[in-house]
Write a structure and sequence with these properties.
This protein has 425 residues and is of the alpha+beta class. Strands 1, 2, 3, 4, 5, 6, 14, 15 and 16 form a nine-stranded mixed β-sheet that branches. The chain contains 13 helices and 16 strands.
């Protein structure tokens, strides 16, 4: 069996980690279209060049390296290995980067063995996946989920506009619309990612084959009562907005038990109290609710239940309840054939595995309705991600890269070549 070389993978991950690395907190600061982000993209293009791959940066800032038949009107559809290169502030070194570096290693192994794929392999480092400007720009652009109006108005939390960030990086935001890839030009899309959750690590399971990406709804909620003096207002005469929110928080488990599934999630992630003074009963509680599930009907049941419970709690505490639905993203299901391929290959390799949903969003979700798309996870130690102490053992990284190599070889080269690789050496 031809093997990936973990030493090269480790070297690549550490090299990319230096772009945006902060000594003070040991975190990575490589937000989309920052100087560090663009430098990391150039580093990846330099690796494409070393491997003799045709390479380019598209209008959305995606860096693309191609191995195999040249691009042209008669070229066969490509197998894409993709993930992102940007990070959240104070992020870890594996999130996104693993999927790009693993793709590089697959190409290296194929070239070392003199294997030229019948279907071209493209390794893509997508842009702006972490949502600095509110989306997953690179993947959305390639799959046609971007509008000119959004490109002209998108801004980050500090009010800095996407079009200005792209201009500073030497890109024209209107060129994003030229990054679209036709479905018939893509044979498959594969993404390997660290889990970013505790399931695989807790169960001591090597691989998580992703069924699909959970749908998400996000609400901005407000419970409005009456601010009162914390000493003078009797407990039974208050309209305490915080008490209403806390009562709802205690109901979340019951809502999921009655209306949800084991894949359901409801989270209150941000809370602001007004007036926000220690000696004043909170007259207003502003908070977010984010709900997730892999089934849109279940999402709707969860949403309806949240609204009913909050309305009831508001009446109990003499509060006014308001909410605004900020977004509703439908679930995205991975291709059954790609999942079956991953399951067959992981069994041949003898790794432990399970199927699971992804509660977090990923580039793959935009490809699920565009082409055959699939994803698998490797464990995150203690489930930590989006933090400096994000870690995945190198042995698990190696197994993930090997599984990707086996899947890509069959998709791009055919079963005969894949079987030959498996028995050689």
């Amino acid at each position: 069996m031809q093997r990936v070389k973990i030493e090269r993978v480790e070297s690549d991950i550490h090299a990319i980690a230096q772009f945006g690395f902060n000594e003070a907190d040991r975190g990575v600061y490589r937000q989309g279209f920052s100087e560090a982000d663009m430098a990391a993209r150039q580093w990846v293009r330099d690796r494409f060049e070393e491997l003799g791959m045709a390479h380019r940066m598209d209008g959305a800032g995606n860096v693309i390296g191609r191995y195999g038949p040249a691009e042209g009107p008669d070229s066969p559809p490509c197998v894409i290995i993709g993930s992102h290169l940007d990070s959240v502030p104070a992020g870890g070194i594996f999130d996104g980067v693993l999927g790009v570096v693993a793709g590089l290693e697959c190409v290296r192994v194929l070239k070392e063995n003199g294997i030229v794929p019948a279907f071209p392999i493209e390794v893509i480092g997508t842009s702006e996946e972490e949502g600095r400007f509110g989306g997953m720009l690179g993947a959305q652009a390639m799959t046609g989920h971007v509008t000119l109006d959004w490109l002209d108005t998108a801004r980050d939390e500090h009010g800095f506009m996407l079009k200005d960030a792209m201009k500073a990086a030497g890109l024209d935001s209107h060129d994003v619309l030229h990054a679209y890839r036709r479905p018939e030009d893509i044979r498959a899309f594969l993404e390997v990612h660290v889990e970013q959750g505790p399931v695989l690590d807790t169960e001591k399971t090597t691989i998580g084959i992703v069924e699909g990406i959970s749908g998400v709804f996000k609400w901005n909620c407000r419970l409005i009562g009456k601010p009162d003096h914390a000493g003078a207002a009797p407990m039974n005469m208050r309209s305490d907005a915080l008490m209403g929110m806390v009562d709802f928080a205690h109901e979340i488990s019951r809502i999921i038990d009655e209306e949800g599934t084991d894949k359901s999630r409801i989270t209150i992630g941000h809370v602001a109290l007004k007036p926000g003074f220690p000696h004043t009963v909170p007259g207003e509680a502003d908070f977010t609710i984010v709900g997730r599930d892999l089934d849109e009907e279940v999402m709707q049941r969860l949403s309806d239940a949240c609204r009913r419970v909050l309305s009831s709690i508001a009446r109990k505490h003499k509060l006014k309840f308001e909410y605004e639905e900020m977004s509703w993203l439908k679930p995205a299901y991975c291709d059954e054939g790609i999942r079956a391929l991953m399951e067959r290959k992981v069994q041949e390799l003898g790794y432990s595995y399970r199927t699971m949903p992804s509660g977090a969003g990923h580039d793959v979700q935009f490809f699920c309705n565009h082409t055959r798309a699939g994803m698998f996870f490797v464990p995150s130690v203690n489930g930590v991600s989006h933090a400096p102490d994000e870690w995945t053992h190198w042995s698990d990284i190696e197994r993930g890269c090997q599984l990707l190599l086996e899947c890509v070889t069959e998709l791009a080269c055919g079963e005969d070549v894949a079987a030959g690789m498996a028995v050689s050496g």
